[in-house]
């Protein structure tokens, strides 16, 4: 029919042409939504899901799976210790290039008054234009994002582990963010390859470090402890009105990390990462296994006095310890982070499933969130209602490879720090040498005190007010001589060697559709 024509009625059009007589109204064909599954509902998986939803709105359908959740009434919540889930209590630092790139709604919820602090100085990944790094509790991030996924973004959250389907049936994206020991990644090893530890080995053996995590209630302003932390590599204090003192151990010290039950040692803190909490009789006991942390009750323990010395260094006492846990740190190399899992389905490694890092440089969660932001913005730019091609993710894969090189080379340098002659030395060797004599206490106090003051002066114009010189001298002079020598031998942070340019990722706030892209139309089609 020559007179027949199609007329579109939409919400945003400036004019509407009425149909000719005899026209009929039919729905305008709606573009199918992007379908996304996320394996792992930790901070990275949930941040990715919330960011994609904020960018694509109704144009995306998302499901997030995590076995650490449970359903209570009409809500999904995190399981507690009684249900076999040891919640993470660590304080983490987010660089401003990262937290400023999150969706505005996420930033507003996460950084509520009293829920974060700014103790670290400005730097390349936290420029003055965006603000200082922010300390925040990882548990608070997890709680906020799980609530937002349900209440703000309407994301489907599934309290079960993700199981790879026999057939993907129209799924476009599988984001794998279920941790360093990702079962989902292992299920697709044929597509992603097997992680290798060869590059992070010494004399053919993978280099791992055992760390003690001591959760404390702090008594000093957060910023005051920064020069103390930066001046040595034995203890790291990340605070938020409390926080964690992390202690690197030798193999001999790590052998003391034992939990004692009624009939002897039990698999507890060393195997399951349980937290030992103070009890009424002064012992540290696991809530789950009722086992006792052996060093705290062993009068012959070599480790316990060294733990107490680390607390004393930061102005904390044994009575201020809230919990003790332990974990092992190591790294592995991934060959790729993007893989085609089926003709219409692409898989992506994010967070620790992609780049599990040694946390000493403070880049673990930052790297994970950068990977999530990169993929979210990439999806928004490339999704046009049609199946993806491998070329659509070249830019994101490039970002992931940059992150792997930048952050793992940084972390590796902190594990094998160069000495004054440039020869790499593991922290374990440094600690052992520090524990051996001879000891010149006066020289050690002077060396450590001068190092702290030098760092205080260097950081002074990049952060808030610091403590007096006398306060720092009191912290140094209160230490046992052996602990002093370990700190001196461990060296100050090698900020120059691990500093430099950072990998930048696109911001969810400034993301825009690719040039020439057609927006999704909503409305009615009038067909004559």
From TrEMBL:
InterPro entries: FAD/NAD-bd_sf (IPR036188). Residues 505-528 are annotated as: Disordered. Gene3D superfamilies: 3.30.70.2450, FAD/NAD(P)-binding domain. Residues 505-518 have a biased composition (Low complexity). This is 2-polyprenyl-6-methoxyphenol hydroxylase. It comes from Lentzea jiangxiensis.
């Amino acid at each position: 029919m020559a007179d027949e024509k199609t007329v579109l009625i939409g919400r945003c059009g400036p004019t509407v042409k009425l149909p000719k007589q005899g026209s009929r109204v039919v729905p305008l064909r709606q573009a199918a939504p992007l379908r996304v599954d996320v394996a792992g509902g930790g901070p990275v998986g949930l941040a990715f899901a919330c960011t994609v939803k904020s960018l694509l709105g109704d144009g995306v359908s998302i499901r997030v799976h995590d076995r650490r959740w449970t359903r209570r009434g009409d809500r999904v919540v995190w399981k507690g210790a009684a249900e076999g889930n040891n919640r993470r209590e660590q304080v983490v630092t987010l660089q401003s290039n990262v937290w400023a790139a999150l969706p505005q709604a996420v930033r507003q919820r996460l950084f509520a008054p009293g829920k974060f602090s700014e103790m670290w100085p400005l730097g390349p990944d936290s420029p003055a234009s965006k603000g200082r790094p922010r300390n925040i509790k990882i548990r608070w991030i997890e709680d906020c994002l799980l609530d937002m996924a349900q209440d703000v973004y309407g994301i489907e959250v599934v309290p079960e582990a993700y199981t790879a389907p026999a057939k993907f049936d129209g799924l476009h994206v599988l984001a794998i963010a279920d941790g360093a020991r990702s079962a989902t990644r292992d299920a697709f090893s044929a597509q992603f390859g097997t992680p290798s530890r060869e590059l992070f080995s010494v004399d053919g053996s993978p280099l791992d470090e055992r760390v003690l995590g001591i959760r404390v209630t702090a008594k000093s302003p957060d910023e005051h402890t920064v020069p103390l932390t930066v001046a040595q590599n034995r203890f790291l204090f990340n605070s938020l009105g409390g926080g964690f003192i992390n202690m690197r151990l030798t193999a001999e010290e790590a052998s003391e990390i034992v939990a004692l039950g009624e009939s002897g040692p039990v698999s507890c803190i060393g195997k399951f990462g349980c937290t030992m909490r103070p009890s009424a009789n002064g012992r540290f006991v696991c809530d789950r296994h009722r086992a006792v942390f052996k060093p705290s009750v062993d009068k012959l323990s070599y480790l316990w006095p060294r733990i107490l010395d680390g607390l004393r260094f930061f102005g904390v006492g044994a009575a201020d310890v809230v919990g003790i846990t332990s974990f092992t740190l190591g790294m592995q190399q991934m060959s790729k982070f993007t893989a085609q899992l089926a003709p219409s389905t692409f898989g992506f490694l994010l967070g620790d499933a992609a780049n599990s890092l040694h946390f000493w440089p403070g880049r673990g969660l930052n790297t994970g969130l950068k990977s999530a932001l990169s993929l979210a913005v990439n999806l928004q730019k490339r999704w046009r209602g049609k199946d993806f091609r491998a070329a659509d993710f070249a830019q994101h894969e490039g970002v992931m490879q940059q992150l792997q090189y930048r952050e793992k080379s940084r972390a590796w340098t902190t594990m094998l720090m160069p000495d004054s002659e440039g020869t790499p030395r593991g922290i374990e060797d440094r600690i052992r040498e520090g524990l051996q004599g001879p000891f010149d206490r006066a020289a050690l106090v002077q060396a450590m005190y001068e190092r702290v003051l030098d760092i205080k002066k260097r950081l002074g114009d990049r952060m808030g007010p610091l403590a007096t010189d006398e306060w720092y001298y009191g912290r140094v002079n209160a230490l046992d001589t052996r602990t002093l020598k370990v700190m001196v031998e461990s060296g100050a942070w090698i900020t120059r060697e691990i500093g430099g340019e950072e990998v930048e990722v696109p911001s969810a706030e400034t993301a825009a559709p690719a040039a020439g892209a057609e927006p999704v139309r909503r409305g009615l089609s009038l067909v004559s």
